Structure formats: structure tokens, C-alpha cells
Amino acid sequence: MLKYLLEKEFKQFKRNPFLPRMVIMFPMMVLLIFPLVANFEVKNVNLSVIDHDKSSYSRSLLQKVKASGYFKITAVSDNYKEALEYIESDKSDVILEIPPNFERNLVREMKADLMISANAVNGNKGGLGTAYLVNIVMDFNENIRAELTKNVDKLKVPFLDIIPSYRYNPSLLYEVYMVPALMVMVLAMICGFLPALNIVSEKENGTIEQMNVTPVNKFTFILAKLIPYWIIGYVVLTICIGITYFVWDIVPAGFLGTLYLFVTIFILAISGFGLVISNYAITVQQAMFMMFFFILTFIFMSGLYTPVENMPDWAQMLSNFSPLKYIIQVLRMVFLKGSSFNELIPQFIALMSFAIFFNSWAIYSYRKSS
Amino acid sequence: MIMLLAFPIIMIILFGFGITTEINNSKFAIYDPSKDIATQNIITKLETSEYFSLEEALEDPHQIESIFKEGKVGLMVVFGENFYENLIHTGEAQILLIADGTDPNTASTLTTYASRIIGMYQQELLDIENIPFQIKTEVKLLYNPTMKSAYNIVPGVMGMVLMLICALMTSVSIAREKELGTMEVILVSPMPPLLIVLSKVVPYFTISLVNFTNVLLIAIFLLKVPINGSIFSLYFVSIIFIFVALALGLLISSVTDRQLVALLVSAMGLMMPVVMLSGLMFPIENMPIILQGIAQIIPAKWYIVATRDIMIKGLGLMDVIKEISVLSLMAVVLIAASLKKFKIRLE
Questions:
Q1: Would you call B264 and A157 a contact, using CB atoms and an 8 Å cutoff?
Q2: Cα–Cα distance for residue pair A124/B20, rounded to 1 Å
Q3: In this model, does residue B109 exceed pLDDT 60?
Q4: What pLDDT does A353 receive?
Q5: Between chains, do B131 and A157 touch, taking CB under 8 Å as contact?
């Protein structure tokens, strides 16, 4: 029985030429382009400079800022108002104002001021941009002080040497972080959307009635709907891993088998969810809109783009109900930290429960007679 | 119908609160063999800041590895031995900051903030010891002094919601009529095609305006995002953007005649670029040049820039004239193209 049902599913799948093409193209597109885009890194901060002093110190400070690699001096203005206009038109992000007599004050009065104003509409960029700039100024200050006090008696200045280092991803490559998560997104989109549209489009076309009058039981029917997406999911995952390896040069630190095991359960869970939606929706339009909403929510609440720990408490609670959260954790841990199955047991239980819950619900909510 | 009105509201709440790059009370651990006045002082400074909260004080450096594997902390602060003595006498003491690099953005943000806080301690020492030749920096954060992510995200989510409702719904609804055959009935009636299109578009236009108002109210009262510019300019820009989105929807529906295809084209062809390339979350200037070029033709990009300027920076219509003209141009081109493509006869 199952064999014929599967044959039917694959025929339906192939009949729409768009679907097989999408299954191949979509993961490729996402994994080739998105890692280039999904990047919060703060670099190339555009700096607008107001140098009232024009002394050798102010010039060497600017030289230092330029040499840091974080900043690009895009404008030199005469007054604050002009510099602000650059900020307003997004031509620069940070203003550095060097007041008149900067050098003289520093040497004679032994202290001087600097003004930094940042565009903080993007709080992350504004905050980090100023932090970088302040660090550069502190460093500059240290050098100047060393230079000025060299001739005077030896002066002991307490100096803190801060050495940052990064575990698991020492050069802080963003792709390494994004690629495993993007795989999950692709899987969720394909293995979630297609089943969601499946039963409901049969409903709309009227072909479901023919299924209902056959003696096929609910369990076999749902199983026949699920198996094709399993296979599609494997194809998608294999394409993804291929691109990760050949294009991004990322080799999973953990065992590939663990990866496939978890993805198998995840596909089961998300396809089951799609079928639940499909059972309840009356029109394709409804199904798709519901799916859009849930998938987007799942994705944004899963920690794919922004870490879950940054969210407010209620949102963190909510994120526990997103199956994507667990599979993303698994993929990142396997890819980056090389975690083994034993360390992933909580995620295994969570994903398993999602899979069982959604699929039982899908079988339960499927009605053969209206 | 309820979905159409409820979804944007839920989306703005979820995303407005959920998409945040702010660092709040991030957990850190310390390894402090010195336990002297300087290290205590730095730890208290870190702990009392809004960015960090102390999770654990390790006694054994071997635990560092396992604490990262468990993913309990994002940052580890390791002090050297005889910290204070070194600091005062030799003038040099070492602090090692180890961050969990699995999330590069959080890792670099954490180390930068921690360095700044430690730097503040050093500044205090300098003040106490009265060290000469100091440069004092005064920092001013414009427009968003508390660095809230919502200021950046809300205009983006507005663009996304409008795009979703207008383009997606129009394209699917026309494709649906074609699939069900009801389109034929309308087409054989003596109505001019322009009127048919118009009658398809007007309901969605109205819904979009209602949605926009809802989203705006939530942004102001729940997410506490200010509107520094004029409401009138905001609506003006939004209406142009809605036109663009509707025209896109029409265009998609006229080249496809299956719901599923219309849906997938708008989902993959519209939603993804809007989320990824419009600058909603990821800064456009970080992208490779080719993708920056592609970003220029995405209507939502221009809309988001314009709304940020008006809402957050409080600029007037004249300052966003460039964005407005680009959007208007897009609207005209897209409407013309979709009218031309709109087939009066079915094959």
C-alpha cells in the first residue's frame, strides 16, 4: 500500500517542474550568498574629522586612527554643524572633534580634551565604533606620555595589558558561525513549507476526496506524505555540506553521522508541523500565510541571527518552543566545538519530543470525512 | 482577514523585542589567583555594569576548558599573579580576556566592552596617582543614547511587514483566481482591465494602511521608539512604498498562474532579499560590492533608510528627497510594467 502511495507522491512532486528545481537551487543560493551578507561585524566605520588644532599631535592622532584599519576618514569639516550633516546623510558614522590648542594644552596644562559623537541609530555600530576610537586614543595617549616623560625623571605609570583571545574560532570568521545555522534555515523552509502546502492543495484541487474513499488508514497516509520530505531533506543537507566543504572550506569538527542523525529527527519534526498546518488550513493561501508566520518566528526566535541570551526573559521562554533553536545548537556545537552525542542528549530529547508531538498531532488531526 | 491584521502586530512585537544585538547581563567567569584590591575593583566594576553578570569564580585554570564546552559563559577574565603589585611597581600587569568565539559578533563586542570597563579602572588609577599628560575623551551618542536595538530594527520590520502584506497577498490572490477559474468570469465582463486591477489593489492598500498604523502605535507605545520627525512625512513615504509593493505583487501574479509558484516566487524572490539585503539587520556596507549593488534595487532598502531618517533622526521630507524619488521612480516603472503585462485573455 505504502509503495503505491509513495509512487503517487513522487509523481505529484515531479509534475510541478518548479519544485525539483527549487530543492536544488534554493540551498545553493542561500549558502553561497547569505554567509557574505549575514555579518554584524563592525568595520570600516566612516569617520568625519573636525581638526581645529592642526598641530603635529592632532595629525599623528589621525594617522593612528587611519592606520588602525577600523576607520575610514570620509570627510574633513570646519565645524560641528557641517560634520553633523554628514552624519544625517549617512556619509559618516562617527565625528571626532579635536579642539583648538589641543597640543598646547596637553603639553603645558598636562591635559587635553577630545570630543567623539557617534550615530547610534544602529546601537551596536555606534557603541563599538566609539569603543574602538576611545581605545585608540588611550593608546595614543600612552605613547605621548612615554615620549613626554622620557626626559623628565622616570615616572611609573600603572598600565594594564589586556590580551583578548577567542576560543573555537580564533580569527573570528563569521561564515563559520553562520553556515551551520543557514543549513537549518534552508531545511526548515523546504521541509516545512512543502508539506504544509501538500494536503491543503489536494483539498483545493479535490483530489483528496479520492484518497478519502480508499481504505488507506490515517497512519499510512501521513507516513506516505512524510517519507518524500525525508529524502528531499537528505538531498538538501548533502548539497549544503558539499558547499560548506568546497566553497567555505569548513570541515565539521565533530562526527558527520551525528549530524545526519539529528537532522533526520529535525526534518521529521518540521515536516510533521507542516502537515498539521496543512490539515487545519482550508485554502493554500491560508496555509502559506500561517507557515510564513511560524517559520519566521521560529527562525528569529532560534538564535540564528541574534543570540538567544540577549533577548528579554519572556522571549527566551518562547524560544524554547522553537525546534530550530535545538538543531542550530546541535549543528554549531558539532561543527565548531566537535561535541559528541553524549553532550547533545538534552537537544536529542527536545527534538525527539517535537517530532513525536507534531506527527501524532498530524495523524490525529487528519480527518477522512468532513 | 484576522490573520492579515493580527500577524503584523505579533511580528513587530516578537521582532522588536527579539532581534537584539544589545549585550545585557552577559555571563562571565573569572580566574583570579591574586585576589587583591585591583582585581577586586575590576571585578566589581564589570559586575555592576549593565553588560555583565558574574557566573562563577574558578579556582583551577583547568576548568576554563570545560566551562566553555558547556557554553555557560561567554567571557572568561583571567588575571595574572601578584596583579596589584605588578601594576604599581613595574607599571605593567596582564589581563587575559578569553571569549567564546562561536559567535564572533558577541565575542568581539564582549571583549571590547570589557576592555573599556577595565580601561575606566586604569583611568581612575591615573587620576588618583595624578599622572600628567592626559587626554580626556567625551563621548556623545546621537539619536539613541541608550543604544537600543529597537531603534534600528523597527523601521526595518515595518518595511518587511508592508512588503509581506502588499506584495505577497496581491500576487497570491490573483493567482488564486486564475487557478480557480473565476478570473475568466471577470475578464469576459465589459470592465476595462485598469478597473479590474484597481479593484484588486484597493482592498490591500486599505489593509496595508491599517496595518501600518497598528505597527506604528505598537512601536511608539510598547517598544518606546520615538517619532522625531513628522507623522505626515512618515505616512507619505510609506504610501509610496505601499504602491511599489502592490505593483510588485501585480507583476508577479501576471507572470505566474499557479498559487504555489506565485507564493514561492514572492517568498524566495521578495522576502529573502528584504530580510537579508535591505539593511534590516545586516549593515549593507559589510557586504561584497556585487551584493551592495543588488541591494540598491531593493525597494525596502530605500524605504528603511528613509524611515530611519524620519523616525529616529527626525529629519524632514527635504532630507530624504533622494529616497523618495527613487521609490517613486520604482513605483511608476513597476506599475507601468505590470499593467502592460496584465493579460486580458487566458491562454
A1: no
A2: 9
A3: yes
A4: 92
A5: yes
B108 contacts in chain A (CB < 8 Å): 41-42, 128, 172
**What part of A 266-285 touches B (C-beta under 8 Å)?**
283-285
Do the interacting molecules here have an ipTM over 0.85? Answer: no
Check CB contact under 8 Å for B133 and A137: no
pLDDT of residue A177: 80
What's the first-to-final CA gap in chain A, in angstroms?
24
Mean pLDDT of A196-221: 80
Spatial separation of the C-alpha atoms in residues A94 and A70, rounded to whole Å:
12
pLDDT in tens, B170-196: 777 777 777 777 777 777 777 777 787
Question: Using CA atoms, how far apart are residues B150 and B156, in angstroms rounded to an integer?
Answer: 10
**Which amino acid, residue A328?**
I
The residue with greater pLDDT, B17 or B203, is B203
Question: From CA B6, how far away is CA B17, in angstroms rounded?
Answer: 17
Using alpha carbons, select from A328, A322, A263 the residue that is nearest to residue A293: A322
Mean pLDDT, rounded, of chain A: 82
Per-residue model confidence (pLDDT) at position A369: 65
pTM for the whole thing?
A: 0.77
Distance (Å) from the alpha carbon of B111 to chain A's nearest alpha carbon: 7
Distance of residue B81 Cα from the nearest chain A Cα, in angstroms = 13
Q: What is the crossing angle of helices B299-307 and B321-341, to 10°?
A: 150
Q: Alpha helices of chain A — where are they, by DSSP H? A: 2-15, 18-37, 56-67, 80-88, 102-104, 123-149, 174-205, 207-213, 218-246, 256-280, 284-301, 313-319, 323-332, 345-365
Task: Return the bridge partners of A51, or none.
Answer: A98
Find the mean pLDDT for residues A52-77: 85
